[in-house]
C-alpha cells in the first residue's frame, strides 16, 4: 500500500509541476506585446488598427492574470488601446 501511495504522490507532483510551468510561461505576455506593436503599426489603416487593437486588449487581458507577464500584458493592452485611438483618428480624418 505504501508503494502505491508513493506512485500516486509522484504522479500528482509531476502533474502539478507541469501545470505550474504552463501558468508561469511568459509566452502570452510576449504575444500581447507583439500584437500591440503590430496593431499600432497598422493603425493608420483604420479597420486593421481596430481589429489589432481589440486583439491586443483580449490577449493582454488573458495574460494579465499571470503576475510574471502582467507588465508585458499591460504594455500590450496600452498599445492596443492607442492603436484603436489612432485608427479612429485616421477614420475621422478620411471622412472629413
Topology overview:
Elements: H1 2-23, H2 27-42, H3 46-63, H4 70-95
Could you characterize the architecture of this molecule?
The structure is a single chain. The protein has one domain (24-95). The chain is 85% helix and 0% strand. It contains four helices and no strands. It has helices at residues 2-23, 27-42, 46-63, 70-95. The model has no long low-confidence stretch (mean pLDDT 84).
The outline comes out as: rod-shaped
Query: Structural class given helices, strands, pairing?
Result: mainly alpha
Count of helical stretches: 4
Low-confidence stretches: none
**Share of β-strand residues:** under 5%
Total E-strand runs: 0
Total separate domains: 1
Element string (H = helix, E = strand): HHHH
Distance between the amino and carboxyl termini: 79 Å
> Which bin fits the share of residues in helices?
over 70%
- Tell me, rounded to a whole number, the average pLDDT: 84
As a whole number of angstroms, the C-alpha radius of gyration is: 20 Å
What does the main sheet amount to? Answer: none
